[in-house]
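Same chain as my last thread, 148 residues:
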Amino acid sequence: MSRQDRVAAASFGGRVVVSAQLLLLTMYLIGSFGVLLVAALHVRDLPAVLDPRVDRLGDPKDSLPPVGPDSAWNPLLWVFELGRVLAMFVYPLAFVTLVLGVAALIRTWWVGDRKAFGWLVVSTGVWSALAVLALTPYGTQLHGWLLD
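reply #2:
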């Protein structure tokens, strides 16, 4: 087995972690900021994006789905609702993605897969920034609004 084959086999986990982090990030952004933007457009109060509260935006469920019928057959309902559920669990989700990202970073660096390492640095860095944002007053206010 050549060194390149060993690197490819050993860094497969790092590529899986990057893919999972990016998928979860996309779903989180749709479920939190996507729902927030749709709710602000629904009540015609765009400055409410910077101050998400129930008395200003109403219940987040009232603005879903953004387009189409409110039925189980609407794929937008599934995307927004699954994203909203992920956004409700932002704290454990960020913790898990950061732990897996750091572990995969160490492994890909040790193996020498620079491409996977670079992507892991970016995706783990974005999740770190998202975890910090979730702990700020704005993040806790957004999380509280989504939980309503």
